[in-house]
Amino acid sequence: MSNHFDEPTQQFSNRGQAVCKSNRDALLPVAIIACHPDPNRLGEFCALDGLMQFGEQEINRHWPEFHTTTSSIGQGLSVPQVSRKSMRLVREGGLTFILRRQDYSAPVSLNGEVLQDQLRIDQQSLEQGVELCLGDHVMLFIKCMPEPAMLQDDLGLVGISHGVQQVRERIGKVASMDEPVLIRGATGTGKELVAQAIRRQSKRFGKPFIVANIPAMQPSLAVSELFGAVKGAFTGASTDRKGYFQAAHQGTLFLDEIGEASQDVQAMLLRALESQQVVPVGSTEADQVNVRVIAATDANLEAQGENEFKQPLLHRLSSYQIFLPPLAERREDIPALLRNFLRGHWLKVEGSDSLPVSFEAPWLSCDLVRQVMQAPWPGNVRQLLNITRQLVVDSRGDQHLQMDPHVLASLSHSSVTGETGRVEEPATIKRRKPSQITQDELLKALQNQRYDMQATADELGISRGSVYELIKRHPQLRAVGDIPDSELRQAYQDCAGDLEQMTTRLQVSRIGLLRRLRSMGIDA
Q1: Can you give the pLDDT at residue 479?
Q2: What was the pLDDT predicted at 280?
Q3: Cβ atoms within 10 A of the Cβ of 72, count?
Q4: CA 370 to CA 124: how far, in whole Å?
Q5: Average pLDDT of the chain?
Q6: Nearest-5° angle of CA 397, CA 401, CA 406?
Q7: Which InterPro entries match (predicted)?
Q8: Is 189 helix (H, G, I), strand (E, B) or coil?
């Protein structure tokens, strides 16, 4: 990465989109609205290209202008509490800048340090991102990064970070092909979302998209679930049954958490990938299938021995890989994600997707946003989704969003340092044996984590596959697949389609419930 900007390397259209002239990976200071009295503006951004072209940039109520992807006209902050007089960012050299108060009259702080006369912002801080608070009403997150990408596109990927842009590019390169794809990333980074995006851009769009959640399959039935079974193959097989491969014929099969597959399943998967044929349990004849396989894992499969994961299968699945960045490495995307999630939950609670606007007493405070921005997010985007849901539900009837103290404690066990913005590593999860988990402990953890299987696994210190196994043995719990269609339809009707209420009522995974409803043709 170059630190020299003696000549301008970027041009910006009136939509705020970067057009690279010479070096698309060159770093550029970008300001993102992280907090605003109008929370519908979270995630709007602008490149501070004046810093690179002219060596300075004014910041005030009206300047710079921030852009969205739905409007070609930029807009200043337009907040009465932000001064019309300007403070000034001045380039000292390379990617080091001086923030000068000038005649700016309102309170200002940078990473919690009050601006008196001037503050120096070095390159290391800017590469991590700094928080510029303009009073109690506005927060800008300023970060040096490659050219900004779109906030959201037709892939459904939200964010302007370089990591998200790379994911978009890789999807575009591989989507039209029929090669298997292995999506790798920590839990909650959106692996299924990426699989859906690949499918939407492929020639198989409109054909079946089947999700096979490997850890949720009973080991004794996993082979028949994937490859089908003929009548009489085993007790209870009263008719011929299609497997996931047959159901996905002409379409796409998404194998979630492929690292949890048993040795038998791995062997048959390798054969299916190589021959495009599957043999149902109890049959001697192979079914020809035309299926594109996309797999996902958060495990280091290369480090596992041959007895854990077959390397030939790994090589076959990973002919093309897409790596998803953790949320802590793309904090510039948090404001836009926060806005989208708040809108979604607000729509369910209040019936409107337009978030409340208050310039006198903001509904969304800078202090709350600072806590969100500084959290380590071990559960990544899924954890952020859950937190915003809790925020909206807990704040029903209030004029301000309030964070539950227990939720706040879970977020603040690791923080961002004021000088560099570097995220400290969260405490290592203590691993335990599934046999050490009592039935009461399992039930309590599931309730604490709102039946999020990965979060429950992290709390208990076991794998997600082990959580599913313990659920099967628990006398009060059941898997989503064990619930009769009639009971699901009744719960859907009684809860008016609210997945959160259904999750609590049925005591099952929200993601599993959503997949089951969709497989029944219910628009959830």
Answers
A1: 81
A2: 92
A3: 11
A4: 20
A5: 85
A6: 110
A7: AAA+_ATPase (IPR003593), AAA_lid_NorR (IPR058031), P-loop_NTPase (IPR027417), Sigma_54_int (IPR002078), Sigma_54_int_dom_CS (IPR025944)
A8: coil
* Exposure b/e, 502-517, CB count within 10 A at least 16 = b: bbeebbbbbbbbbbbb
Other residues' Cβ atoms within 10 Å of the Cβ of residue 4: 10
Beta bridge partners, 58, equal 88
Q: Spell out the residues 6+ positions from residue 263 whose beta carbon is closer than 8 angstroms to its own.
A: 307, 310
Given a contact cutoff of 8 angstroms between Cβ atoms, the answer to whether 36 and 29 are in contact is no
For the chain, residues with pLDDT lower than 70 are 1-25, 69-72, 149-153, 233-238, 412-431, 524
Q: Give Cα 284 distance to the centre of its chain.
A: 43
| CA–CA separation, 273 and 265 (whole Å) | 12
pLDDT of residue 515: 75
* 509-518 pLDDT, tens digit each: 887 788 788 7
Among candidates 356, 388, 369, which has minimal Cα distance to 134?
Answer: 369
Kindly report the pTM of this predicted structure: 0.79
Question: Pick from 252, 247, 244: which is nearest to 209 by CA?
Answer: 252
* Whole-number Å distance between alpha carbons of 82 and 3: 32
CB 382 within 8 Å of CB 188? yes
